[in-house]
């Protein structure tokens, strides 16, 4: 299918074509659709669109609770406006409508209205001061232009590494960053143009303390006098001792960084799919007929399990790529077969994988059986992999056997293999030179006659329809496949026939099936496959400890390299972080120019660093692994988490008394900023609720990192930033 086609429309055309084709088939022949991607795409898009709408509803509900219904309606206007502009941007950039691009919109949901919330909170304050609507609008836009521009640009810089990420990982997740950047750009334009104009025409009513409490909350947003007093008291106490406030605010980030070393590492999690992948590999000498017989038996065993709908086998080669990251590398291998197993639900697939793995291991002890779930992310040949580089094949093979033996003893490893251990049976003849001279047979003559007899020679051609086919003449298959029959062959020279065995001894010799190379070097790749639900990082860590204890020495000229999931993760993270340095300099420049101070920019920088610690703390608290999506969330979090701090710090700088370090004035500025800070804090994480409720292992780490980091960054904006400002002024 071409990239500019929609699979639902394209598949309907395919069905119609197949129906017409089937009508013309001879009796006894039929068509069977092995796999159809359309239901999976439709289900995924429908669920993502529902998540998008649910997230928008949650964001609007939180805005009503925090700011009142009028302000919520004004802020809510930004969601459809920005969404439509993002769709236009996607069309212009030729970004397809798929799960990653939609997820970018879900991630941007809470971020879209941050600027609008600040504007809607600021404009009414100027109106209450007695300014006319036009003057209130101009003053609000002029006052907020620099902080909103700075916060938007820093957030864009945080998501740029994701959008610009090269390689397979970038192709996979890049559109998340692109769509977030598009959404934030249009959100800034809307917040400085359309939203202020609407706000001055529909200002919130004046507060009426005598009105019914729920009605007052509905009109003005949540407020509680007792809680405000306690909050004011906490600010007063900490502002007297700003160092204490700084230390308390840094506690959670420090704990997060300390616990980072205990987090399990994972590249990408498994997919939630009602399918799984099965590979069956017999010894290299196994004939295709034997493989087919065993495969049919295995198919019947699998179908006996409750919940299995169908099993499709492909013998002698890899299955067609029915999932986007499957590796298609096996062809013309009679000892190999791969299957697509379809079940009734993802839960049944997860339950059946370990059961079928153990069952087939018992039934086929001489085969390598790999029952694996479908994975997310770029393709990886094996979860655990060790590459041995060198020149001598015998040494490489010997080292591979030793390392493979150690790997096979690691817990939770189901199967191992190395690329030089697969040997084929080779017919060897040790020529008796004296006898060959007496019979006048040369080595070349013997080799040519054996090759002609066993492999055959082209004896002519036949015409089949419009195609000319060569005819190969050789002894029949039974005689070629039996060693005794081969020994009974006669060789002819000068009209005399001599028994094949009279010229020497016939033996069976092992021959390496294939010599593998990587980057032009000979390599023996040792691979390990792990049980369902076990993180490869755990197995790799235990394997490395075993290697240290075993004291295996690699000869001079031979090198080791870790591959598998670990190498792919490190490569992807390296490519991601390669862009961070330049973008960090750009972010620092933006902060210095917008705040007019290196020290204040450093305060915001500390907030960004601490937000990463808060994200790690959230991962540790909810027991999620530290994977690639967590890293992406952490990088994006840096730009998001500092937005509230920039707004608070700008407000302090713009107040004449607070600017001088007056703790009372700083306290009132912080209290005044708290409503929109808390609103943006709640709306951003609440946009991730659909991703969390969706379950699975792919989206929750991303959502947990950003949501947890933003909640913690609120404390930094309301306590750490003003305490740091006061400390700077006092010193």
UniProtKB/TrEMBL annotation:
Q: What GO MF terms are annotated?
A: xenobiotic transmembrane transporter activity
User: Keyword Amino-acid biosynthesis on this protein?
Assistant: no
Which residue windows are coiled coil?
none
Q: List membrane-spanning regions.
A: 48-66, 73-93, 141-164, 176-198, 238-258, 576-593, 600-622, 628-652, 673-693, 699-728
Q: Does the keyword Protease apply?
A: no
Q: Which UniProt keywords apply?
A: Membrane, Transmembrane, Transmembrane helix
| Entry GO CC | plasma membrane
Query: Which domain of life does the UniProt lineage start with?
Result: Bacteria
Q: Which Pfam families does this entry report, sorted A to Z?
A: ACR_tran
This chain belongs to the protein called Probable RND efflux transporter
């Amino acid at each position: 299918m071409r990239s500019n086609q929609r699979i639902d429309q394209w598949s309907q055309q395919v069905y119609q074509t197949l129906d017409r084709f089937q009508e013309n088939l001879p009796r006894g022949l039929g068509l069977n659709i092995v796999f159809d991607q359309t239901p999976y795409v439709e289900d995924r898009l429908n669920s993502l669109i529902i998540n998008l709408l649910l997230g928008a509803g949650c964001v609007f509900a939180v805005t009503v609770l925090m700011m009142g219904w009028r302000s919520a309606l004004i802020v809510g206007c930004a969601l459809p406006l920005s969404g439509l502009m993002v769709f236009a941007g996607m069309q212009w950039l030729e970004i397809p409508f798929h799960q990653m691009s939609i997820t970018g919109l879900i991630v941007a949901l809470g971020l879209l209205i941050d600027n609008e919330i600040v504007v809607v909170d600021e404009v009414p304050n100027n109106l209450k001061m007695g300014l006319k609507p036009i003057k209130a609008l101009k003053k609000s836009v002029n006052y907020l232009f620099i902080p909103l521009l700075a916060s938007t640009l820093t957030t864009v810089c945080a998501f740029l590494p994701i959008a610009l990420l090269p390689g397979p990982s970038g192709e996979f997740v890049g559109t998340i960053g692109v769509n977030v950047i598009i959404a934030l750009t249009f959100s800034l334009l809307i917040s400085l143009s359309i939203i202020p104009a609407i706000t001055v025409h529909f200002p919130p009513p004046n507060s009426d303390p005598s009105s019914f409490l729920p009605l007052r909350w509905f009109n003005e947003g949540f407020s509680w006098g007792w809680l405000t007093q306690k909050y004011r008291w906490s600010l007063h106490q900490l502002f007297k001792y700003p160092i204490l406030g700084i230390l308390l605010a840094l506690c959670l980030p420090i704990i997060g960084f300390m616990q980072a070393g205990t987090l399990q590492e994972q590249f990408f999690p498994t997919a939630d799919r009602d399918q799984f992948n099965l590979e069956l590999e017999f010894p290299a000498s196994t004939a295709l007929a034997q493989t087919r017989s065993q495969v049919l038996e295995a198919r019947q065993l699998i179908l006996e399990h409750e919940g299995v709908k169908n099993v499709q086998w492909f013998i002698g080669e890899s299955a067609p790529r029915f999932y986007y990251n499957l590796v298609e590398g096996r062809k013309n291998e009679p000892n190999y077969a791969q299957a697509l197993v379809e079940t009734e639900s993802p839960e049944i697939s997860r339950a059946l994988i370990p059961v079928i793995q153990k069952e087939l291991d018992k039934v086929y002890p001489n085969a390598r059986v790999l029952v694996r779930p479908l994975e997310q992310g770029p393709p990886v040949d094996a979860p655990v992999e060790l590459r041995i580089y060198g020149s001598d094949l015998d040494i490489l093979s010997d080292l591979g056997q030793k390392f493979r033996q150690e790997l096979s003893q690691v817990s939770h490893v189901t199967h191992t293999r190395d690329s030089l251990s697969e040997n084929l049976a080779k017919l060897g003849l040790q020529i008796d030179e004296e006898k060959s001279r007496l019979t006048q047979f040369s080595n070349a003559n013997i080799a040519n006659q054996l090759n002609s007899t066993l492999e055959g020679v082209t004896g002519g051609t036949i015409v089949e329809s419009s195609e000319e086919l060569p005819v190969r003449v050789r002894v029949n298959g039974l005689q070629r496949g039996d060693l005794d029959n081969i020994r009974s062959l006669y060789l002819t020279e000068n009209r005399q026939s001599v028994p094949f065995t009279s010229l020497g001894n016939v033996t069976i010799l092992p021959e390496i099936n294939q010599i593998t190379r990587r980057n032009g070097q000979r390599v023996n790749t040792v691979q390990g496959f792990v049980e369902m639900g076990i993180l490869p990082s755990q197995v790799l860590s235990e394997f490395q400890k075993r290697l240290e204890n075993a004291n295996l020495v690699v000869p001079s000229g031979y090198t080791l390299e870790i591959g598998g999931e670990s190498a792919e993760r490190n490569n992807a993270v390296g490519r991601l972080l390669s862009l961070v340095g330049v973008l960090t300099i750009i972010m620092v420049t933006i902060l210095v120019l917008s705040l007019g101070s290196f020290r204040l920019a450093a305060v915001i920088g500390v907030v960004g660093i601490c937000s990463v610690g808060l994200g790690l703390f959230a991962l540790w608290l909810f027991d999620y692994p530290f994977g690639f999506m967590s890293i992406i969330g952490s990088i994006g979090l840096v730009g998001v988490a500092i937005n509230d701090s920039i707004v608070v710090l700008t407000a302090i700088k713009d107040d004449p008394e607070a600017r001088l370090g007056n703790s009372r004035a700083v306290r009132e500025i912080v209290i005044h900023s708290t409503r929109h800070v808390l609103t943006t804090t709640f709306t951003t994480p609440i946009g991730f609720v659909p991703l969390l409720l969706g379950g699975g292992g792919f989206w929750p780490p991303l959502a947990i990192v950003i949501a947890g980091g933003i909640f913690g960054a609120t404390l930094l904006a309301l306590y750490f930033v003003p305490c740091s400002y006061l400390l700077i002024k006092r010193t």
